[in-house]
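Dear colleague,

Thank you for sharing your sequence with our group. We've completed the structure prediction you requested, and as agreed, I am returning the results in plain text so they can be pasted directly into your records. Please verify that the sequence below matches your submission; if there's any discrepancy, let me know and we will rerun it promptly.
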Amino acid sequence: MNSKVTHSPLLATNQVEADLTSLRRLLVAASISPTYCRSLLQDPSRAIKDGFGGECFILSEPTLEVLSSIQAETLTDFILSINEKIPILIH
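Please find the predicted C-alpha cells below.
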C-alpha cells in the first residue's frame, strides 16, 4: 500500500513568537495609517514586503502565504481572517 501523507507546515514556537511580534507591528501600522491600510487590503504581500515607515515585517513563509491570501475590504475583516487562518499554522 502506497499512501501519500501531506502535512501543513507547522511553525516552531520561536518562529510563532517572531511572527506574532511582526504581525502586531503590521496591524498597528495599518491602524495608524489609512494609506498603509489600503495598501495592505489591496495587496497584502506587497504591503508586507514594502514595510511601513522604515519598519520591516519579517514573517515566515507559511505566515506570509496565509496573509497574502486574505481578501478583505476592511481592517476588521482582515484581522478576523487572520484569527481564522493563523491558528492552522501553530496547532
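Summary note from our side: Residues 13-90 form one domain.

Kind regards,
the structure core
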